[in-house]
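Handout, section 3.2

Students often ask what a structure token actually looks like in practice. Rather than define it abstractly, here is a full record for Pyridoxal phosphate phosphatase PHOSPHO2 isoform X1. The first block is the sequence as you would receive it.
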Amino acid sequence: MKILLVFDFDNTIIDDNSDTWIVQCAPEKKLPIELQDSYEKGFWTEFMGRVFKYLGDKGVREDEMKRAVISMPFTPGMVELLNFIRKNKDKFDCIIISDSNSVFIDWVLEASNVHDVFDKVFTNPAAFDSDGHLTVENYHAHSCTRCPPNLCKNVVLVEFVGKQLQRGVNYTRIVYIGDGGNDVCPVTFLKKNDVAMPRKGYTLQKTLSRMSQNLEPMESSVVSWSSGVEIISHLQFLIKE
């Protein structure tokens, strides 16, 4: 019986947002105003598609983008946390559910040699086309009204846990480690044994604390963190139970 660890990527594993970080590859490290203004709320993936096309049109190539992405710093204590999980893989399964894209996440996991820690990565599929432009697609379609149209993390999590159950894998609890507004949906569906671990000072933590002030019910316990080292402490406590 294992614990399932669910990670967000941007501002959780890495200490920045990979989609905004990549803008440093643009001429003068900024996007034209009309491109910036083309973003529509809820359609971030489409916006990033236009950003990647712009970078490609300006001659920014794959190796340059890769250098930028793998220079992103990890969140404090995250490398220690991933090493702790690796040493205890008999106790944990580990997945990423992220609104970034498959190319960026693969680059970071490979460059830092932590691919083996994660059993599965769920994110928007990306690839370089024949012109050398990075293209990105929506992860899926769903009917959740709380989440952007390209990704409901709760739908992904519920489907994954269901498929694992069919394979005979039943988790004792889920620990959800994230920071953003799109982590609120899956966290509110966690059950009594589960643990929501929002990063201190970020949207998820602020939203959960507002919900508790409004007495909106949440079944799981909530343990906030600033460093991966604090997450290690809590996981050590959980595996001793």
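Discussion prompt for tutorial groups: The chain has two domains: 2-15+74-124+141-239, 19-70. How would you have guessed this from the sequence alone?
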